[in-house]
Amino acid sequence: MFSSQIKPLFERLKYQSTATALINEQGTYSFAELGVRTAAIAQVLAPWAGRNVLVHGHKQLDAVAAMLACISQGCCFSFTDQSNPVPRIEKIAKLTRAELILTATPQKLEGLDRWPQWVTSTLENGDPGSLPLEPELTQPALYILPTSGSTGEPKGVVVSYENFAAFSTWYSPMIRDGIAHGCHVSHACFSFDMGLLDLFPVLCEGRALLMLDHRHNMLPRQNIRLMSRYPQSPVTSWFSTPSFVDLMLKDPLFSGEQFPDLKRFFMAGERASLGLVTQLQARFPGLEVMHGYGPTETTGMTHTFELGQPPEHISGLLSLGTACGLTGIRIVDADGQSLPPGEMGEVRLYGPQVALGYLPEDDPRNSAFSHDEFGRYYATGDRGFVDEEQSLFIHGRDDGQLKLNGNRIELAEIESSVCRYVGVTQCCAVPIKEEGKVIDLQVFIQLRDDSATHRAALRQFLAEQLPAYMIPKSMFFCQTFPVTLHGKIDRQQLVAQHKEPLTVS
Fold first, then answer.
1. Which pTM was predicted?
2. Which of 243, 258, 371, 504 would suit a FRET pair with 214, their CA atoms being 20 to 30 Å apart?
3. Structural contact between residues 216 and 243, judged by C-beta atoms closer than 8 angstroms
């Protein structure tokens, strides 16, 4: 199924379509231009057909071409962003059993001489006529996505062609139907599942992908300039984390007036607050806000739901709707028994999007991939519940429980209580540890309108929601939240930036 899904894209590459395929800081590139670069890299890859390849870069034309070249040769690829230090890249190359490194950066990576390396910019353009329309897939894995491991060492999520095809079957219509033929904005790096989820379906639909450079994560005006640079390719759809949306909303130009063609807006990757969604809807009247959820281990996204105005929620938790495509879901207790609607438990996801597992094979978290009488599943570690219509609501992580002053505290409960206050646009709780013991809980909050009155109102609101021992003593009120490379809240950076909290008593 994947081969037939990717065929329209390879037709555009092979037959040199002049339509715009990619937009980045360097310019715009047609499918024809992408095709000659893909063909050049594919020719180099031919001796490694069916092998594992490491692709290195950021949002360059050749970074995309290298991944497409891997597909054309049946190679399983892993992507490392150029922001990674060489020692981590080396770990990932070993973990993913890469036999070759392709880098879209100007120079080869030093210190990785045990692997053959090609600097793609040194390759002459190739003949796109040599590209296959339906690549021959000789092994099951499409890509291996490196992610952080509990030991501090990276682990790899192995996603198959079948996994991705199952996802793309239901997602592709969402980025096509009812949307003008403008460009789709992608913020995530290709080393993050959201980056890959955006890439292939958008290009297969013949749409242009606008790739935001992460140098401008904290500079919304720079992103707006790129998004406005090519009026012949207006922004019509978007996908990012809520944290990045919040940063963009700091600039008043990020609005429906500036981007009147923006119709569909996907948010996923972390908790979205009721206040943030309300603010986004006010800035873009009539915008379709799609609230998404799904772990990397289930090919990135299993749920996406169009939020109404006002957004559907239960006690501040935004609805994620029912599972998409062929994904199944159960909410289970500690014994793996199904829980009725409304009861909180662990989320288990079933179906063809469940990844093949982790590398290394002996990673203890591989136990999260298992079978029961309902089929093969991934135990997400997320706590949530479904309502009577089977719409999903995520409360937080199953591993977010800690003890402070002898009291057991759920980080997710504190965060969801803070986010329930309509004036809050962002929030995260961070435990502070000393010699392995939690000595403090710091909560970082962003108010839509920050003032002493609103701060006091929030504290009164929390007093009505939480027992006294769970109300944070250390509160930081922030104008902006720093984000990681993948656009999620950078908790370590928040702690480093705010040494002295505003302590409320």
1. 0.87
2. 258
3. no
